[in-house]
């Protein structure tokens, strides 16, 4: 009986130990399950692209808040881990090494812009990571990495995407313009855009009278614009980043450059800060864009709710108060990634990439399906003309009719004022 009682005590002790171990392990499992899913990236919070980087970050934070209110991803909260890339490509390798090896992020996305995506792609390839790119032009043409996807609606021929609508519109004018000047910064995005422009000039039978680049750190654009004016071009195509977009346009007004049509690939003109600072100097410019407050775009499910959150927060944080350029696409980028994580029920990089590649996504910028080299299967780059801008007030840009969509026809909201001088004056 004694040995039997000892046996019973032994079993009780064993049971308690097992229960404690199981409980501890279960608690550990639950703790791991509740750990946040970390998404890491660099972002231009200072430097030449910060006017877009800051609103992009705000849009991503709104997505994170929306997702976490609904329980997160895979039942876990989402955390954004990010650093300022200073609009400097040289910072990118170090930032992402830290994100991956020190911060131990689960997923990465790119910062904003072609130049900042360029040094990141080889890192993603080497580590076999899925990479969502934020507005890079032709970054994957060389690598053709199958697990890269980018949110800019350029289409499967990204190098011509910025310029195609511009030159198509020019070719349709009567009488048809004949001569072209093209100019851009000696940097990744402008160089890609100029390659596309040269192809289209040949396609439409125009004659090039000026084709030059300038250093990215240029501050005086007057000599460049004077040299362009001396060739008397009918068409002026400019591929530029925000600081030089402003500099080129101010110089054009200073020297009274008046071709028949001007603009094309000028990054930054769609930023609220630049629209308000340039005001009527924008009138007549025909330029690429991706979103406009026109009825077709405002009807997309979820977009009004997004702006209801974004615009008050942007005003409080003193970033782009309208947010019509990059913020909707930054939010959509995170929607795509989040949906892929949920549907694959995990964080397996290859499964996520495979799902993104085969799926059509519903987002606040409409339906997105990725095709060749991770570009949109069907491009949707707009060509807009700034018309009837009066003064520098931001409120006027909330209304339809200031950025008139000229191209493509499915989104067209008005006609071109031609030539440029007629709209400018």
User: What structural class do helix, strand and pairing data support?
Assistant: alpha/beta
User: Largest sheet, described in full?
Assistant: 7 strands, mixed
Distance between the termini: 109 Å
Shape: globular
Q: What's the quick description here?
A:
This protein has helices at residues 2-34, 50-69, 92-101, 114-117, 121-127, 158-171, 188-204, 222-230, 242-255, 272-278, 295-298, 303-317, 327-344, 349-358, 420-424, and strands spanning 37-43, 78-84, 107-112, 131-134, 148-150, 179-185, 207-214, 235-240, 261-266, 286-289, 360-363, 366-369, 382-386, 403-407.
Structure in words:
- The chain contains 15 helices and 14 strands.
- The radius of gyration is 26 Å and the shape is globular.
- The chain has a 7-stranded mixed β-sheet with strand order 7-6-8-9-10-13-14, sandwiched between helices. A 5-stranded parallel β-sheet has the order 2-1-3-4-5, with helices on both faces.
- Helix 7 (188-204) links the parallel strand 6 and strand 7 (207-214).
- The protein has helices at residues 2-34, 50-69, 92-101, 114-117, 121-127, 158-171, 188-204, 222-230, 242-255, 272-278, 295-298, 303-317, 327-344, 349-358, 420-424, and strands spanning 37-43, 78-84, 107-112, 131-134, 148-150, 179-185, 207-214, 235-240, 261-266, 286-289, 360-363, 366-369, 382-386, 403-407.
């Amino acid at each position: 009986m004694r040995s039997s009682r000892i046996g019973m005590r032994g079993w009780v002790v064993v049971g308690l130990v097992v229960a404690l171990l199981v409980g501890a392990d279960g608690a550990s499992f639950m703790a791991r399950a509740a750990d946040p899913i970390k998404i890491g990236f660099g972002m231009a919070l200072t430097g030449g692209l910060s006017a877009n980087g800051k609103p992009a970050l705000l849009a991503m934070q709104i997505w994170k808040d929306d997702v976490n209110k609904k329980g997160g991803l895979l039942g876990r909260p989402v955390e954004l881990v990010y650093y300022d890339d200073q609009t400097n490509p040289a910072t990118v390798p170090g930032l992402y090494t830290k994100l991956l090896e020190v911060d131990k992020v689960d997923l990465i996305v790119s910062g904003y812009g072609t130049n900042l995506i360029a040094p990141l792609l080889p890192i993603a390839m080497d580590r076999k990571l899925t990479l969502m790119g934020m507005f890079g032009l032709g970054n994957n043409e060389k690598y053709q990495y199958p697990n890269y996807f980018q949110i800019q609606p350029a289409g499967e021929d990204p190098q011509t995407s910025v310029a195609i609508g511009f030159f198509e519109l020019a070719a349709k004018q009567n009488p048809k313009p004949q001569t072209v000047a093209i100019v851009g910064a000696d940097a990744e995005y402008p160089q890609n855009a100029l390659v596309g422009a040269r192809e289209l000039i040949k396609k439409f039978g125009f004659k090039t009278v000026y084709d030059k680049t300038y250093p990215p750190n240029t501050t005086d654009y007057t000599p460049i614009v004077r040299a362009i004016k001396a060739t008397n071009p009918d068409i002026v195509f400019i591929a530029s980043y925000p600081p030089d977009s402003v500099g080129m346009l101010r110089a054009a007004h200073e020297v009274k450059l008046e071709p028949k049509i001007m603009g094309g690939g000028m990054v930054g003109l769609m930023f609220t800060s630049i629209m308000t600072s340039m005001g009527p100097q924008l009138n007549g410019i025909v330029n690429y864009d991706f979103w406009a407050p026109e009825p077709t775009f405002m009807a997309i499910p979820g977009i009004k709710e997004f702006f209801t959150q974004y615009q008050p927060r942007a005003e409080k944080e003193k970033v782009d108060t309208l947010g019509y350029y990059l913020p909707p696409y930054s939010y959509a980028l995170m929607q795509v990634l989040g949906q892929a994580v949920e549907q694959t029920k995990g964080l397996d990089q290859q499964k996520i990439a495979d799902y993104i590649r085969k799926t059509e996504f519903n987002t606040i910028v409409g339906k997105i399906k990725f095709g060749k080299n991770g570009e949109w299967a069907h491009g949707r780059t707009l060509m807009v003309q700034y018309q009837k801008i009066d003064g520098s007030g931001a409120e006027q840009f909330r209304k339809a009719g200031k950025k008139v969509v000229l191209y493509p026809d499915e989104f067209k909201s008005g006609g071109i004022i031609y030539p440029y001088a007629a709209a400018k004056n």
